[in-house]
Amino acid sequence: MKLAFFEIEEWEKPFLEKKLEGNDLFFSTDPITVDSPDISEIEVLSIFIYSKIDKELLEKMPKLKMLVTRSTGFDHLDVDVCKEKNIVVTNVPEYGTQTVAEHTFSLLLAISRKLIPSIERARKSDFTLDGLRGFDLYKKTIGVIGAGHIGQAVIKIAGAFGMDVLVYSKHHQMELALKHGFMYVDLDHLMRVSDIITFHVPLNEQTKHMLNKENITKLKKGVVILNTARGGIIETEALLMALEQGIVQAAGIDVLEEECFIKEERQLLTEQFLKECDLKTSLLNHVLVTKENVLVTPHNAFNSNEALQRILEVTVENIHAFIEQKPINSV
User: Are residues 168 and 293 in the same domain?
Assistant: First the structure.
Protein backbone atom coordinates (compact mmCIF):
# COMPACT_ATOMS: atom_id res chain seq x y z
CA MET A 1 0.00 0.00 0.00
CA LYS A 2 1.00 3.62 -0.44
CA LEU A 3 1.65 4.93 3.08
CA ALA A 4 2.54 8.57 3.68
CA PHE A 5 3.87 9.95 6.97
CA PHE A 6 3.88 13.71 7.49
CA GLU A 7 5.36 15.71 10.42
CA ILE A 8 7.83 12.88 10.92
CA GLU A 9 11.21 13.14 12.64
CA GLU A 10 14.39 11.41 11.49
CA TRP A 11 14.61 9.08 14.49
CA GLU A 12 11.13 7.72 13.75
CA LYS A 13 11.87 6.58 10.18
CA PRO A 14 13.95 3.41 10.85
CA PHE A 15 11.30 1.95 13.15
CA LEU A 16 8.48 2.62 10.68
CA GLU A 17 10.50 1.30 7.74
CA LYS A 18 11.23 -1.93 9.60
CA LYS A 19 7.70 -2.51 10.91
CA LEU A 20 5.97 -1.60 7.63
CA GLU A 21 8.38 -3.30 5.27
CA GLY A 22 6.84 -4.28 1.95
CA ASN A 23 4.72 -1.15 1.64
CA ASP A 24 5.47 1.96 -0.41
CA LEU A 25 6.49 4.49 2.25
CA PHE A 26 6.80 8.25 1.95
CA PHE A 27 8.12 10.55 4.70
CA SER A 28 7.94 14.32 5.14
CA THR A 29 8.91 16.54 8.03
CA ASP A 30 6.24 19.08 7.03
CA PRO A 31 2.47 19.07 7.66
CA ILE A 32 0.40 17.92 4.71
CA THR A 33 -1.47 20.60 2.72
CA VAL A 34 -3.42 20.76 -0.53
CA ASP A 35 -0.18 21.89 -2.17
CA SER A 36 1.86 18.91 -1.00
CA PRO A 37 3.13 16.96 -4.04
CA ASP A 38 2.00 13.47 -5.09
CA ILE A 39 -0.77 13.09 -2.51
CA SER A 40 -3.37 11.72 -4.92
CA GLU A 41 -1.99 8.17 -4.64
CA ILE A 42 -1.95 7.99 -0.83
CA GLU A 43 -3.95 5.08 0.61
CA VAL A 44 -2.92 5.42 4.29
CA LEU A 45 -2.06 8.82 5.71
CA SER A 46 -0.35 9.34 9.08
CA ILE A 47 -0.09 12.86 10.49
CA PHE A 48 0.34 14.83 13.71
CA ILE A 49 -1.70 17.80 14.97
CA TYR A 50 -0.38 20.52 12.65
CA SER A 51 -1.86 18.83 9.60
CA LYS A 52 -5.43 20.07 9.18
CA ILE A 53 -7.49 17.44 7.39
CA ASP A 54 -10.59 19.02 5.86
CA LYS A 55 -12.89 18.33 2.93
CA GLU A 56 -10.75 20.26 0.44
CA LEU A 57 -7.67 18.22 1.30
CA LEU A 58 -9.56 14.93 1.33
CA GLU A 59 -10.86 15.65 -2.18
CA LYS A 60 -7.21 15.68 -3.31
CA MET A 61 -6.75 12.11 -2.02
CA PRO A 62 -9.37 9.97 -3.79
CA LYS A 63 -7.58 6.70 -2.92
CA LEU A 64 -7.33 7.39 0.82
CA LYS A 65 -8.69 4.52 2.89
CA MET A 66 -7.21 5.25 6.32
CA LEU A 67 -6.22 8.31 8.31
CA VAL A 68 -3.91 7.75 11.29
CA THR A 69 -3.22 10.61 13.68
CA ARG A 70 -0.21 10.10 15.94
CA SER A 71 -1.99 11.94 18.74
CA THR A 72 -4.72 11.35 21.28
CA GLY A 73 -6.79 14.35 20.20
CA PHE A 74 -8.39 14.43 16.76
CA ASP A 75 -10.07 17.83 16.49
CA HIS A 76 -7.70 18.69 13.61
CA LEU A 77 -9.54 16.11 11.51
CA ASP A 78 -12.93 16.43 9.84
CA VAL A 79 -14.18 13.02 10.96
CA ASP A 80 -17.65 13.61 9.51
CA VAL A 81 -16.29 13.95 5.98
CA CYS A 82 -14.05 10.93 6.57
CA LYS A 83 -17.12 8.95 7.57
CA GLU A 84 -18.95 10.03 4.42
CA LYS A 85 -15.99 8.83 2.35
CA ASN A 86 -15.65 5.56 4.32
CA ILE A 87 -12.17 6.53 5.52
CA VAL A 88 -11.17 4.77 8.73
CA VAL A 89 -9.77 7.23 11.30
CA THR A 90 -7.62 6.07 14.22
CA ASN A 91 -5.68 7.73 17.02
CA VAL A 92 -3.31 6.89 19.88
CA PRO A 93 -5.68 6.76 22.88
CA GLU A 94 -2.92 7.04 25.46
CA TYR A 95 0.83 6.78 25.49
CA GLY A 96 2.21 8.35 28.67
CA THR A 97 0.22 6.60 31.39
CA GLN A 98 3.07 5.03 33.35
CA THR A 99 5.43 7.85 32.43
CA VAL A 100 3.27 10.60 33.95
CA ALA A 101 2.34 8.48 36.97
CA GLU A 102 6.01 7.81 37.72
CA HIS A 103 6.87 11.49 37.31
CA THR A 104 4.12 12.34 39.79
CA PHE A 105 5.79 10.15 42.38
CA SER A 106 9.21 11.52 41.45
CA LEU A 107 7.94 14.94 42.49
CA LEU A 108 6.33 13.56 45.64
CA LEU A 109 9.46 11.67 46.73
CA ALA A 110 11.64 14.69 46.03
CA ILE A 111 9.39 16.71 48.33
CA SER A 112 8.94 14.09 51.04
CA ARG A 113 12.67 13.41 51.37
CA LYS A 114 13.84 16.98 50.66
CA LEU A 115 15.88 15.61 47.79
CA ILE A 116 16.80 18.86 46.03
CA PRO A 117 18.18 20.72 49.09
CA SER A 118 19.94 17.52 50.22
CA ILE A 119 21.76 17.19 46.90
CA GLU A 120 22.59 20.89 46.73
CA ARG A 121 24.01 20.81 50.25
CA ALA A 122 26.15 17.73 49.57
CA ARG A 123 27.55 19.34 46.42
CA LYS A 124 28.82 22.14 48.61
CA SER A 125 30.52 19.57 50.87
CA ASP A 126 28.03 20.38 53.61
CA PHE A 127 26.82 17.14 55.20
CA THR A 128 24.82 18.57 58.07
CA LEU A 129 21.22 17.39 58.36
CA ASP A 130 19.57 20.48 59.81
CA GLY A 131 16.30 21.18 57.99
CA LEU A 132 16.45 18.04 55.89
CA ARG A 133 14.02 15.87 57.86
CA GLY A 134 11.37 14.43 55.58
CA PHE A 135 8.29 12.25 55.99
CA ASP A 136 7.21 8.73 55.05
CA LEU A 137 4.60 8.02 52.39
CA TYR A 138 3.55 4.85 54.20
CA LYS A 139 0.05 5.22 55.74
CA LYS A 140 -0.32 8.76 54.41
CA THR A 141 -3.66 9.51 52.73
CA ILE A 142 -3.35 10.43 49.08
CA GLY A 143 -6.33 11.98 47.31
CA VAL A 144 -6.38 11.18 43.59
CA ILE A 145 -8.59 13.51 41.55
CA GLY A 146 -9.44 11.78 38.29
CA ALA A 147 -9.29 8.00 37.82
CA GLY A 148 -8.60 7.65 34.12
CA HIS A 149 -5.57 5.76 32.80
CA ILE A 150 -3.02 7.95 34.58
CA GLY A 151 -5.05 8.23 37.78
CA GLN A 152 -5.34 4.46 37.97
CA ALA A 153 -1.58 4.07 37.47
CA VAL A 154 -1.02 6.53 40.34
CA ILE A 155 -3.43 4.53 42.53
CA LYS A 156 -1.44 1.34 41.90
CA ILE A 157 1.88 3.00 42.77
CA ALA A 158 0.37 4.53 45.91
CA GLY A 159 -0.79 1.07 46.97
CA ALA A 160 2.77 -0.24 46.60
CA PHE A 161 3.92 2.45 49.05
CA GLY A 162 1.27 1.37 51.56
CA MET A 163 -0.67 4.62 51.25
CA ASP A 164 -4.38 5.04 51.97
CA VAL A 165 -6.03 6.08 48.72
CA LEU A 166 -9.13 8.24 48.27
CA VAL A 167 -10.47 8.94 44.80
CA TYR A 168 -12.75 11.61 43.40
CA SER A 169 -14.07 10.73 39.95
CA LYS A 170 -17.21 11.25 37.88
CA HIS A 171 -17.29 7.54 37.11
CA HIS A 172 -17.16 4.91 39.84
CA GLN A 173 -15.70 1.48 39.05
CA MET A 174 -16.40 -0.54 42.18
CA GLU A 175 -14.50 -3.63 40.97
CA LEU A 176 -11.43 -1.44 40.52
CA ALA A 177 -11.88 0.03 43.99
CA LEU A 178 -12.13 -3.42 45.55
CA LYS A 179 -9.13 -4.70 43.61
CA HIS A 180 -6.84 -1.83 44.60
CA GLY A 181 -8.32 -1.07 48.01
CA PHE A 182 -9.35 2.55 47.59
CA MET A 183 -12.51 4.51 48.38
CA TYR A 184 -14.53 6.87 46.21
CA VAL A 185 -15.37 10.07 48.08
CA ASP A 186 -16.75 13.51 47.26
CA LEU A 187 -14.34 16.34 46.50
CA ASP A 188 -15.01 18.15 49.77
CA HIS A 189 -14.14 15.07 51.85
CA LEU A 190 -11.01 14.37 49.81
CA MET A 191 -9.78 17.93 50.33
CA ARG A 192 -10.38 17.87 54.08
CA VAL A 193 -8.58 14.62 54.92
CA SER A 194 -5.86 14.05 52.29
CA ASP A 195 -2.19 14.50 53.21
CA ILE A 196 -1.33 14.62 49.51
CA ILE A 197 -3.60 15.63 46.62
CA THR A 198 -2.76 14.85 43.01
CA PHE A 199 -4.65 15.98 39.90
CA HIS A 200 -5.23 13.75 36.86
CA VAL A 201 -8.17 15.30 35.01
CA PRO A 202 -8.39 17.08 31.64
CA LEU A 203 -8.80 20.85 31.54
CA ASN A 204 -12.33 21.86 30.59
CA GLU A 205 -15.12 24.12 31.83
CA GLN A 206 -15.85 21.79 34.74
CA THR A 207 -12.24 21.41 35.90
CA LYS A 208 -10.86 24.93 35.32
CA HIS A 209 -9.76 26.31 38.72
CA MET A 210 -10.98 23.14 40.39
CA LEU A 211 -8.74 24.20 43.26
CA ASN A 212 -9.47 27.88 43.92
CA LYS A 213 -9.57 30.64 46.54
CA GLU A 214 -13.00 29.52 47.73
CA ASN A 215 -12.19 25.88 48.46
CA ILE A 216 -8.45 25.88 49.11
CA THR A 217 -9.03 26.85 52.75
CA LYS A 218 -10.79 23.50 53.22
CA LEU A 219 -7.54 21.63 52.71
CA LYS A 220 -5.92 19.74 55.57
CA LYS A 221 -3.15 21.94 56.97
CA GLY A 222 0.23 20.83 55.69
CA VAL A 223 -1.08 19.12 52.55
CA VAL A 224 1.18 18.51 49.53
CA ILE A 225 -0.27 19.45 46.13
CA LEU A 226 0.79 17.68 42.92
CA ASN A 227 -0.26 18.62 39.40
CA THR A 228 0.99 16.82 36.30
CA ALA A 229 -2.24 17.37 34.32
CA ARG A 230 -2.94 20.96 33.18
CA GLY A 231 -1.99 24.25 34.79
CA GLY A 232 -5.45 25.78 34.61
CA ILE A 233 -6.89 23.18 36.98
CA ILE A 234 -5.35 25.11 39.89
CA GLU A 235 -5.88 28.84 40.40
CA THR A 236 -2.33 30.13 40.78
CA GLU A 237 -3.30 32.96 43.12
CA ALA A 238 -5.05 30.50 45.41
CA LEU A 239 -2.04 28.18 45.54
CA LEU A 240 0.31 31.05 46.34
CA MET A 241 -2.01 32.20 49.12
CA ALA A 242 -2.17 28.68 50.59
CA LEU A 243 1.61 28.31 50.45
CA GLU A 244 2.14 31.65 52.21
CA GLN A 245 -0.43 30.80 54.91
CA GLY A 246 1.02 27.34 55.53
CA ILE A 247 -2.12 25.53 54.41
CA VAL A 248 -0.05 23.87 51.68
CA GLN A 249 3.39 22.84 52.88
CA ALA A 250 4.77 22.09 49.41
CA ALA A 251 3.78 21.65 45.78
CA GLY A 252 5.17 19.61 42.90
CA ILE A 253 3.94 20.82 39.53
CA ASP A 254 4.81 19.97 35.95
CA VAL A 255 2.29 22.42 34.48
CA LEU A 256 1.64 26.13 34.96
CA GLU A 257 -1.47 28.16 34.36
CA GLU A 258 0.38 30.71 32.23
CA GLU A 259 2.06 28.30 29.84
CA CYS A 260 1.07 28.22 26.19
CA PHE A 261 -2.01 26.30 25.12
CA ILE A 262 -1.00 22.68 24.81
CA LYS A 263 -3.26 20.08 23.23
CA GLU A 264 -0.79 17.22 23.02
CA GLU A 265 2.29 16.79 25.19
CA ARG A 266 4.09 15.37 22.17
CA GLN A 267 3.82 18.76 20.45
CA LEU A 268 6.24 20.22 23.03
CA LEU A 269 9.03 18.41 21.19
CA THR A 270 8.21 19.79 17.75
CA GLU A 271 9.90 22.70 16.01
CA GLN A 272 6.47 24.12 15.19
CA PHE A 273 5.55 24.48 18.86
CA LEU A 274 8.89 26.05 19.73
CA LYS A 275 8.29 28.67 17.05
CA GLU A 276 4.82 29.48 18.36
CA CYS A 277 5.47 29.41 22.10
CA ASP A 278 8.18 30.93 24.26
CA LEU A 279 7.79 28.43 27.09
CA LYS A 280 11.03 29.54 28.71
CA THR A 281 9.74 33.08 29.25
CA SER A 282 6.44 31.73 30.57
CA LEU A 283 8.28 29.66 33.16
CA LEU A 284 10.83 32.29 34.14
CA ASN A 285 8.12 34.90 34.72
CA HIS A 286 6.19 32.59 37.00
CA VAL A 287 6.45 33.40 40.71
CA LEU A 288 6.00 29.74 41.74
CA VAL A 289 9.38 28.90 40.20
CA THR A 290 11.11 31.01 42.88
CA LYS A 291 9.44 29.31 45.86
CA GLU A 292 11.73 26.99 47.82
CA ASN A 293 8.84 24.71 48.78
CA VAL A 294 7.64 24.37 45.18
CA LEU A 295 9.21 22.00 42.66
CA VAL A 296 8.52 22.95 39.05
CA THR A 297 9.41 20.80 36.06
CA PRO A 298 8.97 22.16 32.50
CA HIS A 299 5.96 20.08 31.38
CA ASN A 300 8.25 17.08 31.14
CA ALA A 301 6.19 14.36 32.82
CA PHE A 302 5.30 12.68 29.51
CA ASN A 303 8.83 12.74 28.12
CA SER A 304 10.32 9.25 28.22
CA ASN A 305 11.77 7.00 25.54
CA GLU A 306 9.04 4.47 26.18
CA ALA A 307 6.17 6.96 25.87
CA LEU A 308 7.38 8.31 22.54
CA GLN A 309 8.08 4.80 21.28
CA ARG A 310 4.55 3.85 22.28
CA ILE A 311 3.13 6.42 19.84
CA LEU A 312 4.93 4.74 16.97
CA GLU A 313 4.02 1.25 18.15
CA VAL A 314 0.30 2.07 18.38
CA THR A 315 0.44 3.79 14.99
CA VAL A 316 1.89 0.63 13.43
CA GLU A 317 -0.62 -1.56 15.29
CA ASN A 318 -3.45 0.59 13.95
CA ILE A 319 -2.19 0.23 10.38
CA HIS A 320 -1.64 -3.53 10.59
CA ALA A 321 -5.10 -4.02 12.13
CA PHE A 322 -6.64 -2.03 9.28
CA ILE A 323 -4.79 -4.05 6.63
CA GLU A 324 -6.14 -7.20 8.31
CA GLN A 325 -9.63 -5.64 8.16
CA LYS A 326 -9.90 -5.54 11.96
CA PRO A 327 -9.56 -1.81 12.75
CA ILE A 328 -8.65 -0.77 16.29
CA ASN A 329 -8.59 2.62 18.05
CA SER A 330 -11.12 4.04 15.62
CA VAL A 331 -12.46 7.48 16.50
Answer: yes
